[in-house]
Amino acid sequence: MKRKLGWFGLGFAGAELAAAILPPLVCVPAAAFLVCLALLWIKRRRDSAIPVLGVLCGLAWFLVFTLVWVRPVKALAGQTVTCTVVVETDADASYSESRLRGTLRLTEIDGRAANVKVQCASFPGESAGERFTAKFALTELPANKYRLSRQSKGVYLQAEYLGSYHPLDASRAPRFALYRLRQRWSATLRRWLPRQLDGIEAAMLLADKSHLDDSVQQAFRTAGVSHLLAVSGLHLALLCGLLGFGRKWKFYKPLILLRAAAALFYLLLTGMPVSVSRAGIVLLVALVGDFFLLPPDLLTSTSFAAILLGLQNAYAPCDLGFQLSFCAVMGVQAAAALARTEQCAAQDKPAAVKALCQVAEPVQTAVLASLATLPVLVAHGMAASLVGVLCNLLVVWMVQPALQLGILLLVCSAVPFLAAITNLTALVLSLWLKGLLWLVRCCAALPFASICLPQRYTLFALAVLGALAVCFWHARRLRLYLPAAALCTVLAVGLGVWMQRDVVQINLVGASNNPCVVCVQNGQAVVFFRGGESNWSAVQNYLAGRSRQEPALVVDLRAKPTQMEFSAAEIVTVQELADFTTRPVLDGLTLDLYHNKSANLAVLGVGERHIAVGAGRLELAEPVRVDVLCAPGTLSDSVRPDTILYTAAAPRWLDDAAGCTLRYGEDTPGLTLRPGRSMIWEEAQTIAVQ
């Protein structure tokens, strides 16, 4: 077996990821079955022991890490403690003035030295690096989709600020000095570049997304190039490539040391997120190979990085950036192998065939990298882009000049007598970024640029295609796999479209205390609107990839509707209607609208099910019975639900909900209904009434 370290690292990281996701009662028997199966296979091929050894080492290290480091931290849950804390660099503005939210590092707990990271939703502060003592209530992280991501960053508890604030001197740790340097450089870029373009450059060069416009982020996400706004191996390689000076100087040892120092500085400057750390380790391994005149191998270096990151934190493979970067490397390696095969086959062919192979290589790389990352995107509930390959081919080459011009702008702006060059550089960079953004927006505007695939069904289809690939590879018939995979894909898409026909998806979107309710059926949407501009922005982001066009109907439930620009085919303001109105909506659904004084209620009929959304305390002569009431601000005797779906952590009406089933979800909970058939809850757990 070639690349033994690569296979070992793949098994090591995969085992840690499985152990973090699966409950112990499932993980232990599954691991035992896997080992037994692998032992039977080893008798036939001894090389198979390498990935199996990686799996066993990954499981063993995850167990040790949990017992030695994680369990003592989780033992603090349920305690109220007085701590000395340091505000970490990921802190940003909370909803209250002079408050932050983010990660806190506890350096002292009740007078005892400690080193514990916690997540806190609101605490007093102005910037990263501040130190203070205060009283906190520690609890375990909620079981939601953010839990594994926070654990991958070493955060295993959440804290609630209780008061007793006392400021201390700011931390003098080097990471905060580098953070302040990054903020100063980001401010310099924003001073010289126009709005929107400044946020793009700061995000690509300095990993500062705090000033990135929402519409820009949405355009990059829809076009499938959001990875360009997150500093990764691509950015690190492009920046360190500035110090390459061609192949003649590639093995010049002082220059290798300079590139290594630049890479290390850039790692520390960006805060060393997992994806950048992975890329940095791979680059440093490649530089070590150049130093000792050894050939580098991308897959082996990536697996080595995965092992190091997994040893540092057994939850590191749960990070989305880690998974995307690892899968992208697998796709790039597959594309490189395919390109080598094509080049060997084209050696005796005409020049036109060789030129075609050279043109096809970047396309193949983009396609295979996108396909390799598709399972990760679907597993995390993210939208996939059908124009990602096209947009990557159009704009990736523009990233390196943008980074180079950004560095030049920072250097020239620091020298007063170079003001003319600074202005010229800022102008050229602005035009370059404007062209890049124009291309991204053109791709994002294409039909079906972004689609949200059904999670479980898509993962099942991808698993079937993967199993087919293994079978054809084992039978040495990989050439026949392409037509078989194409046929299976067409059948899967057709079956999926048929199964999703007339299915209704209802989700709570926006602020947790007063969210909107979005109903999607057959690519059309109805929005039950409450709240303000931020809620409407959240609705638009949610609908990207789920609806082929603007909402068919917006139902404004606000008691005092203010002037807002709704992009919808039809807008209904309930406050202006009669006391009761009914109408059909979408495909076979009904909508009943109730209005009484300053209270409004909408009841959506989906077959025999009735879903209610309200605003205010409605008073009716006869109560309305519904199956689900979505995120009420208050409970009314006129609405009698069987189940209440909500997103607020501690709603005021909780004590009055006796007799109702409570379903809670922190982020966009909802339900999927098949008219006349089933109702399935999504991201919503049952809460026991105390």
N/C terminus separation = 58 Å
Number of domains: 5
What percent strand? Answer: 15-25%
Helix content: 40-55%
What value does the average pLDDT take? 83
Annotation, overall tally of beta strands: 23
Largest sheet: 8 strands, mixed
Structural class computed from helices and strand pairing: alpha+beta
Continuous helix count: 19
Compute the CA-based radius of gyration.
Answer: 28 Å
- Overall geometry: globular
Low-confidence stretches: none
Strand order of the largest sheet: 14-15-16-17-18-19-20-23
Could you explain how this protein is built, in words?
By secondary structure, the protein is an alpha+beta fold. It has five domains: 4-74, no CATH class; 80-172; 177-451, no CATH class; 455-500; 504-687, Ribonuclease Z/Hydroxyacylglutathione hydrolase-like (Metallo-beta-lactamase, Chain A). Strands 14-15-16-17-18-19-20-23 form an eight-stranded mixed β-sheet, with no helix packed on it. Strand 16 (599-606) and strand 17 form a beta hairpin. Helix 1 (4-21) runs parallel beside helix 11. The longest helix is centred in the middle third of the chain and has 29 residues, at 351-379. It is globular and about 85 Å long. The mean pLDDT is 83.
Write a concise synopsis of the structure shown:
InterPro entries: ComEC_N, Competence_DNA_uptake. The chain is 46% helix and 21% strand.
Task: List the topology elements.
Layout (H helix, E strand, L loop, with lengths): L3 H18 L2 H19 L6 H26 L5 E8 L4 E2 L5 E11 L2 E13 L6 E10 L6 H6 L2 E14 L5 H19 L4 H10 L7 H9 L10 H8 L12 H17 L4 H18 L6 H15 L7 H26 L5 H29 L4 E2 L2 H8 L3 H15 L5 H26 L5 E2 L3 H20 L6 H20 L3 E6 L6 E6 L2 E6 L3 H11 L9 E4 L14 E3 L6 E6 L3 E8 L2 E8 L2 E7 L8 E7 L8 E8 L14 E4 L5 E4 L5 E4 L2 E3 L3
Parallel strand pairs: 4-6, 11-12, 12-13, 17-18, 18-19, 19-20
Antiparallel strand pairs: 1-3, 1-5, 2-3, 3-4, 5-6, 7-8, 9-10, 9-21, 10-11, 14-15, 15-16, 16-17, 20-23, 21-22
Helix pairs in contact: 1-3, 1-11, 2-3, 5-6, 5-15, 6-16, 7-16, 8-10, 9-10, 10-11, 10-12, 11-12, 12-13, 13-14, 14-16, 15-16, 17-18
